Task: structure prediction
Amino acid sequence: MPMKPLEFDRRYGELDQVISAYLGMPADDEPDKPSEALQAYLRHTWHTRPWALATAETQLREYARNPPGRLRLSLGEFYPVPDVGLPESAVQDWLFTIADHIKASIEAGAVPPPSAPRTHWEWHARFPELGQFLGGWFSQDMPDEFTDHDAAVRDYVDASDPQLVARFTGELHELLALHLDESDYALAVAELGMEVDPPQPYGPGGWLAWVAQQLGEPRADYGPPLQGD
Result:
């Protein structure tokens, strides 16, 4: 029978995070050079969950040492590694190579310097609520659902928990702190799911700055008026 979530996380949870970083990216790791996908995983994880790196190294190595057979995969008892563009015979060595890179990074304390995300996975791992906002409220259907961009922003704020709005605002400021070129902000919003152009006369970076300014002040909820007010 399929594994329960707790068992899955204990055995494959961080392995799944590593493999997810490769979706849409080449699995071209070499013993002397980690792939762009693995570099993105290392960069993000070092700065957010450094303790998870050791778990990833262990789970990768254990999976490579004990690859599941087809029957147990079909029964849902093992994690099925998605197709990463490698022949099945090469997956085991590839997993060992990834584990070796992660181990070397941990032992050397090689924390990557902060930088802008470089892969689709890294954009969404670093800016999850911004991705929810852009992908959910600014898809190609946005002009049919809202009168303008401001209305979509107001709808997001009204429909979302204030704590999520605060997190989103923080992610906005973090993205703006990267001081990207306007073309790079265009890439950022596209990676995060925006499918419409920003409103005139703004470019992507200018519009994000405007949204951040509008959401900069927290909205206090003072409750119902006191009797006699």
About this structure: The mean pLDDT is 90. The radius of gyration is 22 Å. The chain has twelve helices and no strands.
